[in-house]
Amino acid sequence: MAIIVERKRLSFWERLYLPQIVSGLFITFKNIFKPRVTLEYPDQSPVLPVGYRGAPTLVKDSEGREKCVSCQLCEFVCPSKAIRVTPGEISPDCEYSYIEKAPKDFKIDMLRCIFCGLCQEACPENAIVLQNEFSINGYSRGDFVRHKCDLYAAGGVMPDKIMKWKKVRDNAELGGNR
Ligand code: SF4
Ligand code: SF4
Known about the structure:
CATH topology of the domain at 56-155: Alpha-Beta Plaits
Bound molecules: iron/sulfur cluster
Largest sheet: 3 strands, antiparallel
CATH class of the domain at 56-155: Alpha Beta
């Protein structure tokens, strides 16, 4: 059965509209004297909060070594299929050949990325990190595809907590489990 909802009749003051206009102007004048919260971007840069998740980048350790082992977990977990990892082998002559793999190429399509941070959470090596960059520009779709060298240039260096480079780890580092 249909229910008829009676429309509420406007009071005398509501039909005048003036009280609503005056109360709106009052709010406007109250805010005129408050400090401005808008920025003259790009002349002024915003102060980003701690933990801000901008564009994903690849990072190196303090000795300039690649942290990524091209395990492709980030590629697998990425919901928008923005990441493409081409795994490569570390040369047997290299001092760190026991690490076995490093990315031959690593691409992130910034047009597909939704800055969700799942790649960072999934990475077992802390190699992919969402940093502060939020302004990404280009003239063509290709400009938004970042390759390994672009991602490392944007990522920079982050101290390594994983220590996979040490062939033999002491008990203190492993929490006394060995
Ligand atoms: S932040 Fe999210 S969408 Fe962007 S590359 Fe990482 S997992 Fe993919
Ligand atoms: S960034 Fe991390 S998760 Fe992605 S391939 Fe490299 S090591 Fe694996």
